Amino acid sequence: MFEAWGRFVERRRWWVLAAALLLIVFMGVWGTRVFGSLTSGGFAVPGTESAVAADIAARDLGRDDADVIALYSTPSAPIAQLKALPGVTDVTQGPVSGSQTFAILHLAGETGAERHDAYVAIKDRLTATGARLGGQAAIEDTINRQVSSDIGRAEAISMPILLILLVLIFGSLAAAGLPLAIGAIAILGSFTALRLLTYVTDVSVYSINITTILGLGLAIDYGLFVVARYRDELRRDPATALARTMATAGRTVAVSGVTVAVSLSSLLLFPQAFLRSMGYGGMATVVVDMLAALTVLPALLAVLGPRVNALRVRRVEPRERGAWFRLASSVMRRPVRYVLITTVILVALGLPFLRVSWGGTDERVLPAGAEARQVSEVLVRDFPQTTTNPIEVVVTGLADPAAYTDRLRHVAGVTDARVTGRHGATTRIAVTYPGIALSAETRDLVQRVRQEPPPTGRAYVGGATARLADQLDSLGSRLPWMALVVIVATFVLLFLAFGSIVLPIKAILMNVLSLSAMFGAIVWIFQDGHLADLLGFTATGTIEPSMPILMLAVIFGLSMDYEVFLLSRVREQYDLTGDTTRSVAEGLQRTGGIITGAALLLIVVVGAFSTSGITFIKLIGVGMLLAILIDATIVRALLVPATMRLLGRVNWWAPRPLRRLYARYGIREESVPEPALN
């Protein structure tokens, strides 16, 4: 199938490139306008008590969120002037602390995007009154601008480094430019896919960073694999070389792409719009990468032919038995020792994850110099008895609000409770407290408030802290199902690719080890704050729970990318020789440099994003960097050869019924091409 596809693209290369050019122009014009359609929320869980509280309050009482907080260095705020601003529906005067006060502004708009537009329209006029601006709208605006800045900086950092590394890997400017071209197409494709998704669902602003990392990283990986194989095959005529490249590297790209997409699809099991938008956006990006690598790239190779080696800056001579062959042979001479040592290292790295502490995101995800963050910090420090994120108790059918409000005032940890809205049978009570809204102590307070039922009617406890508590419960209940989907799907795909049930089990166990090591390092760095000054973030003592889940889906898929590429070459050699030890050594020799190069290129991409000013984007960047580094070195170079040597022929074992299933439905060519001779 893939060989036939390669021959088709070779014959129709100019048509393929013409269609691709039209699509690229469309994506460049339309897709890059995605930034104005994204949201910074999406962490709430529909159907939970906190979500029901928000829905009832919005329906019966109207919104009571602090959209904008205007902080003044004077004892009074220009309330009348603020009320006269367009798009402002209400203004509340805050208390005085020393020579400071603040005002809370509520903005018109049914959606977050509409309120954001209202804020942007009056932002300069608010600043002109002498205010420093905070609140949800200001934080969202700061995040939007930071994300856009981060992407521009990451691309400016990574692209020149990627080009230099690709030239060093290939020794040719022409060959080096091809993966970058596919990477540029992938970025435009990811923007276009995200904008299409905004018409059917909320899409998180943070998905831009994630899809850009995925799009650029995978595109360069796939481009590297395909171009390297094509150059190996060029001892034959160009048309045959392209057909064989698609039959081998093209098949690997397809299997890898489907595996990564299926891994990302597990995010759709979660009801949070944040994770679902990451799942949809990530899957769309992987599909764009895969299609570009299987259509545009072979068409470009067909046009170039032997000229893919043009503009040579150094000669790269492949070797049958180079450093990677010697490394694999050395490892396989002492497999037990290497398995024990690497396993102990990975387990030790993962131990800090056993003491992970979950928490939410607040203004501290922003850079320390961001005005919206500074305003929030001033409120916590100088107005300790005031909170702009109260626990909201929405009660239906409450006969005596005063008595119930008084009961809530006496709950341990509550500083005050007051009725902030009443209409018909619905009452809203704001419960204030000292400290930080998303802390474990405030989550405990939410539970105590929930244990105080009203004398009549029914109470729904909401607010930011209650949303976090409900989010933790929701994530915990669905995480086992996510793990099941990822494991089963990975097992099935790897079985269909290699006809073995042992290799998928081994690959899954190794991924679990490398992921646990990465998660342990993340806790040590970001929760404990050991590298906070070096990396430039504020440690909160917690990890936002959506981040490890997102990283699990992304990194599990990326790890399988390298696994599939390595095992594909090992399987080719095994089909020729029937010798597992020799096949592993030769497979690692043929792929070790490419896998290391691909990992290094992906590290450059994610490393550039680890410079983000948004803390949890930085967390994802650092986490992916560590995971790729661990996977490409300890796992692929040491643990895989050692375990395959220990297992021997068992690596390729499957029960007879499954062997028949593989013979009928396996993802393979009818006649596997002979591997290229160096």
Q: Could you characterize what this model shows?
A:
- With 678 residues, the protein is an alpha+beta fold.
- The chain folds into 3 domains: 2-32 and 141-148 and 160-316 and 329-362 and 469-665, no CATH class; 67-134, Alpha-Beta Plaits, CATH 3.30.70; 368-468, Alpha-Beta Plaits, CATH 3.30.70.
- Helices cover 64% and strands 8% of the residues.
- The chain has helices at residues 2-11, 13-30, 49-60, 79-83, 112-128, 136-170, 173-197, 207-233, 238-265, 273-294, 296-304, 323-333, 335-350, 371-382, 401-409, 440-450, 464-498, 502-527, 532-535, 546-577, 580-609, 615-647, 656-665; strands spanning 68-72, 88-97, 100-107, 132-134, 391-396, 416-423, 426-432, 458-462.
- The strands form 2 sheets. It has a 4-stranded antiparallel β-sheet, with helices on both faces. Strands 6-7-5-8 form a 4-stranded antiparallel β-sheet, with helices on both faces.
- Helix 2 crosses helix 11 and helix 8 packs antiparallel against helix 21 (580-609).
- The longest helix has 35 residues, at 136-170.
